[in-house]
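Quick one: co-fold with aspartic acid.
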Amino acid sequence: MKNRRPSILLIYTGGTIGMKQDPDTLALVPFNFAQIEQEVPELKKFGYAIDFHSFDPLIDSSNVTPQLWIELAELVRENYVRYDGFVVLHGTDTMAYSASALSFMLENLEKPVVFTGSQLPIGMLRTDGKENLISSIEIAAAMDGNGRAVVPEVCVYFETKLYRGNRTSKYNAENFRAFQSANYPVLADVGIHIKFNRQNISYPEIWGRELKIHTALDTNVAILKLFPGMRKEVVESVLGAEGLKAVIIETFGSGNAPTQSWFTEAMKQGVERGLVILNVTQCQAGSVDMDAYETGVALKRAGVTGGRDMTTEAALVKLFFLLGQYSETEKVNEFLVKNLRGEITAC
Ligand code: ASP
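Sure, here it is.
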């Protein structure tokens, strides 16, 4: 078992990492992924069995839809037995959404699914893509003495840090450190050695369960970011959108919203009409606590559910996932506050 050559499936969905500069026009164009070993000759030095799968067409991640997540989940399932780990090359813009989505869609995951990308194309001299790619492959291949994955999670690797996927947000459009996981510690730090922080990694209680994928996603969800001066008509038109089943309200601080009666009333009526209303904070770090201030208590009384320390990205796709599973509002609310894939810190 120990000496077996690890096998990795490298999946390219699109994004900056797979681009190079056209020598004539200097414009960035995707390179033929079949020739990745020419671009990254270091891959041959691994001694791993690495296979490649490229999406066609390639997708700038701003164009990602749940269809891509379904295709990715199916690809992982079809290849689950053959490979020890999966590395997904993805644009950075919506990587946190995709990694969060896959974490819910893949149940009983026992193998790494590592998302990575880059700020500069792999075909450019100063690229961050090579290190991101090479370390991601090494992480996806890491096994313990029993042949079990060291990181059996959906994660994001970027600029020397391995994060739990559903805890990440893209927070920097310029810096090589593009992601943060403000409410959960890193799963690994990469320096001279890869230091896995096993106490932060989630392991199956029982190994050997069959991988299940969930592809029913219901996108009838809206996000309403609160701001001082927000008009009643805007709130009402969002909450009244046809077919809407859930609204995430991005509130101030630890889950606070205006206490004007029209606002509280709009929330209350939304809940009474069967909407799930989930409260997450606009702050980058910290948690919603609707008991801390009167402005939060009013929301709680109106029937709003507290999303504690979930990122907006994780909250959104968790709603897609739960609405795809359950038609009863109570069930969705019940599971929203439960920790399903390490996305929320228990009270
Ligand atoms: N627009 C690109 C994308 O998200 C940026 C990137 O890859 O970083 O696909």
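If it helps, The longest helix spans residues 66-79.
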